[in-house]
From TrEMBL:
InterPro entries: NAD(P)-bd_dom, NAD(P)-bd_dom_sf. It comes from the Bacteria. Residues 8-193 form the NAD(P)-binding domain. This is NAD(P)H-binding protein.
Length: 218
């Protein structure tokens, strides 16, 4: 059994991950900001933790994380609030979370990032360009840390029902993937701690999630 602290725990992927972890006998500790988010998370079998990532410093966040075995960072501004919120959550938030995990003595850190080709052949706005810059900078920061990290770069996220089958690799063609299957992949990475210090690109595919993650065991 692992205790998993989920930053972005009330988000679309975080909620799904909390349910999967609880079903697998783990303790999901999703961070939530709004009071109305707590009960739905409890109904998923989670043990929610109240806190606002943008208002916490590393020491305060470390205190909330304390006792956890794994940190999953799946928070994101999602285009809301413009560049300022992207910088605060996807950028500074990741910096704070990495420092907090180090202070709390938690080495295992999973980050949901962005597929490098996300904007290819599109007329990109300045805010999206900023989003991609911030995401890459966050990847660099985590990869240069001494943590036991995994960076997951999913393709275009959809709300279709998950199939439990994906394509995962160090470099793969761009494509779509249901949020269900992103959450399932995160849950499987937690089950397979030998998958470490690797950047994984992820789309829908034909390989069962367990096998797709297992082949990345380095």
């Amino acid at each position: 059994m692992s205790k998993v602290f989920i930053i972005g725990g009330a988000g679309n992927i975080g909620r799904r991950l909390a349910s999967l972890l609880a079903a697998n006998g783990h303790v999901a500790r999703p961070l939530f900001r709004k009071a109305e988010q707590e009960q739905p998370l409890r109904e998923r079998g989670a043990e929610p933790v109240n806190g606002d990532l943008t208002a916490l410093d590393a020491t305060s966040l470390a205190a909330l994380m304390k006792g956890s075995d794994v940190v999953v960072f799946t928070a994101g501004a999602g285009g809301k609030g413009g560049e300022e919120m992207t910088n605060a959550i996807d950028g500074k938030g990741l910096t704070t979370a990495v420092a907090a995990a180090q202070q709390a003595g938690i080495s295992r850190f999973l980050l949901v990032s962005a597929f490098p080709e996300a904007g290819r052949n599109k007329n990109l706005s300045a805010s999206f360009e900023n989003y991609m810059r911030v995401k890459k900078a966050a990847d660099v920061e985590l990869a240069q840390s001494d943590l036991d990290w995994v960076i997951l770069r999913p393709g275009t996220l959809t709300d279709e029902q998950g199939q439990g089958r994906v394509r995962a690799g160090l470099a793969i063609p761009y494509g779509d993937i249901p949020r269900d299957d992103v959450a399932a992949t995160l849950a499987e990475i937690i089950e397979q701690p030998a998958v470490s210090r690797v950047i994984i690109e992820l789309t829908g595919g034909e390989v069962p999630v367990y096998e797709a993650v297992k082949q990345l065991d380095n």
